Each structure stands twice: as structure tokens, then as C-alpha cells.
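Teaching assistant here, posting this on the class forum so everyone can see the example we discussed in section. The complex has two components, and the goal was to see what a joint structure prediction looks like when all of them are supplied at once.
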Amino acid sequence: MDSLIQYSYVVAAALFIYGLKQLGSPATARRGNFISAVAMLLAVVAALLAQGIEYQWVALGMLVGAVIGGAAARMVQMTAMPEMVALFNGFGGLASLLVGWAALVPGSTTFTLVTIILSILIGGVTFTGSMIAYGKLSERIGSGAVLFNGQQVVNSLIVLGILAGSVMFCLEPDNHLWLYLVVALSLVFGVMAVIPIGGADMPVVISLLNSYSGLAACAAGFAVNNNILIVAGALVGASGIILTQIMCKAMNRSLANVLFSGFGSGKVEESAVEGEIKPINVEDAYYILEAASNVAIIPGYGMAVAQAQHVVKELAELLERNGAEVNFGIHPVAGRMPGHMNVLLAEADVPYDQLLEMDDINPRMEHVDVAIVIGANDVVNPAARENEGSPIYGMPVINVDKARTVFVLKRSMASGFAGIENPLFYKDNTRMLFGDAKESIGNLIREFSG
Amino acid sequence: MTTVFLTFILMLTIFLGFELINKVPATLHTPLMSGANAISGITLVGAISLAGNGQHNMTEWLGVAAVALATVNVVGGYMVTDRMLAMFKKKGS
């Protein structure tokens, strides 16, 4: 029986790998996810077949979890997807913490003790870190960076405490005080690690926490001596690290800078931009759009906030019917999680081959008649290219300012998240369409149909 | 000796993971992340043996809690990923 279970794990691992491979292309992704779910089912059934398992409590736990998870997955709005992912991620982390803790039996080897500590530590940081990320993304707590005097000292003390507690735990595993100390400090550390990171850096944080949840499962696998946990956990860990790297590269910042600098904590630099703001009304915007034969739409987090994806799709369709070529330019860090804009536009039925990545849309920008910026700011800021003094200098951006005309849909002139002045708004070819993005686009649509 | 084998598996899997994910297009980053997130619920498999030990001790209660949490992660993660992927359509289809 035991070898049957072990071979089932081998098959499950193969299916996980194949499923992830299929997730790499939009045409096969749905099947890939299904294959991965089958792998999970197989591994769970195999685990249930192990000798001496008493089912009643296991079944109860699974029932409760399945009901909660299923209901949440069905009811969540697409715009709330970043916080949902954070929440699920946190649960996975806490589960790994508990598995590590429960795996502690008298007489464990030092190696097992070390892996127990690792799963508690990583699981704990994943849990509270994800909860803070959830709070920031759903705006239950302020989404800005929280910085205070002596933060580094406090953090260093926590790290030292975790190290000391871990060493003492390995030396005296029977004294549960050390265990509780490490559990508590890991939870605190997760909070401290995420509060100094501002909302716009969330794509990095959420990818990193994703990676941690995998590594926590991996460590738990060592603690309970189970290779399927190690394989699946390591796959997730690796995937999260790659996404984290992609996000950092897209902001031209190191991971250390994202994690520790408290970027966007609200220091607004003095304006040193030449030129003036040129507002435009809906009617004039309509005349320009009506004459355009090539339009690029660049969405940002503001589109998600205004829930404007459906009207954006409608406008794109009207423009196409009017004979224009319409493309969407998606910056890798637009929104609050990797691929955020793509999911929202997919929800609004925009075909994915109409969504161009930054490197594909930039060379076409010179032929674009009108670039419409919807709720994006930093990712279209030409200062990243032109102004060496700018905090975002060097970050790759979508060069909307190279289009013949740029419309910027914006609520007001209030400074963006990072508090960085955007010279785009002052360029000769830029027109500002002030107001709620959804309303402005709705008015444009009415002009087209009227 | 098991420890060495497990570490060996870990090393190979990490390299495999990097190779697998490197080529995923930006359009799929969110489903990839939430799909991977569901996979990290694999900790459920470890939790089952602890929750089912039948001894009504601390280990069992911690295990049951872990089973419930990991199941939220697994079921919710796969379902939400499927919901997202069902929306991705090619032009003209």
C-alpha cells in the first residue's frame, strides 16, 4: 500500500509539471489548470489511503475548507482578484505553519527540527504578510507605505529574536517556550515586512508572497518527510521568484529597494515642469477620435478602481467599427498584481491578442494617432526616460508621448501614488480629460452613437 | 540518506520550475500566480496524515486546522483560476 501511495505521488508530480507547462499558453492554459487540479486530487486521495487515518476530523476540515474556498471563488468580483489571491495565499502559509508545528514529535532529529522551524517561519511570514497585503489591496487599511523612526532597529531585533529562538528550539526542543516565541515573532515579522511597502509596489509583494507560500509547503514537506510537498512547493517557489524578478525589472528597481525603501511614502517633490495643462471636453475629444485611424489604449490601476473595463471595451469596438485600428498597451506592473489589466480586459471580452506588451507597442507608438491613458500614471511617465533626477529614472515605460495626440483620463491633478510629477501632462500633444474614467468614456460612447 | 534524496529532488525541481515558468507570457501572469497558489495548497497532503492520527492530541487539532485552511487554498485557488481562464478569448472566437 505504501509503495502505491508513493507511486501516486510520482504521477501527481508529473501531472503538476505538465499542467504548469500547459499554463504557459493562453490556448491550453485552462486545460493545464485542470490537469494540475487532477494532480492535486490524486495526491490527496493517495494521502487518505495511508494506513491508520481516522477520517471524521479530516473530512470535517476538508468540508469546511471546500465550502469556504468554493464560495469565495464563485462570488469574488474580478476587480477584487488581487486581494483574493493574497487571502488564499495567506491561508496556504498558515496551513504550512500548522503542519510544521504539528510535525514536532519528541525525539526528532536536528534536521527535522530545522525544517520545522523553517516551515513555521516562512509560513508565518506568508500568513501575516498576505493579510497585510490583503488589507492594503482591499483598502481596509491605508495602502501607503508605513514608515516610522527606528523601524530598522525594530526589524533587526525581530530577526535576531527569531534566530536566537530558532537556535534555542533546536537545542531544547522539549521546551515549547522557544517554539511559541518563534511562531509569534514570525507572525510579527510578516506584518513588519509588508507595512513599509506602498500600494503600487504590490505586484512585487504579491509575487514574492506567492513564492514564500510554495517554499513554506516545501519546508513542511521536509518536516513530514513527504516528497510531493517538496516537489509541488519548489515549483511554486520558483514560479513566484521568476514573477518577482519580472516585476522588479519592469520597475528598474532591485528587490531590496522595493522591500526596504518605503517608496511612495508621500514625499511630493517640487514641481519643475515646463508647460501648461490643456484640458479638453468630451465633444472635442470625440472629433479627434472620430478622425483617428490608429488608437492605443493604455490602462492602469485607475481603470480597475473606476470599474471602467466594460465601457473601455465598448469604446474600442465603436472605434473599430469607425475604421480605426485599436490596440491595448499593457505595462507589466500596471495594476496591483502581475497581469491585473489582462484579467480585467479579458472579463470585458477583449481578445487577448489585442493586448500588446510594452515592448510590442512602443515601436508602433509613432504611428498612433491617439493614445488614451486610462488611470495610468507612472507607467507612462516620460521622466523615466528624460529626467535623470526623477526617482523613476530608468524604469521602462510606455512611450505614449510619441503618439500624435495623447488623452489622459484623470480624476484631478492630485499627485499620483508615488508623488512623482508627470511631465506627460504638460506636453504639447497632451490633452487632459478630467473626471471619472467610466463617466468620461460613457460620454464619449454617447457622442459616437448620437 | 533520505534527507540527501529529498534535497536532491528539491534542487532539480527548482531548476525545472525556473525553466517551466520563464516562458509564460505576461497576459497569463495572474492565472499563473493563482494557479501556482492553488498548488501551494499541497501542504494539505501533509496535513491529512497529522489530522487523521486519531489520538485527539495537539497534533491532531493543529492538523485539522491545517486541513481546513489548505483546502480553502486548494479549492478556492483552482476554481478562481478556472473562472479567470474561461474569460481569455482569442480574436474572432
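For the discussion questions: Chain A touches chain B through 111 residues (CB under 8 Å). The radius of gyration of chain A is 25 Å. Think about how each of these relates to the inputs above.
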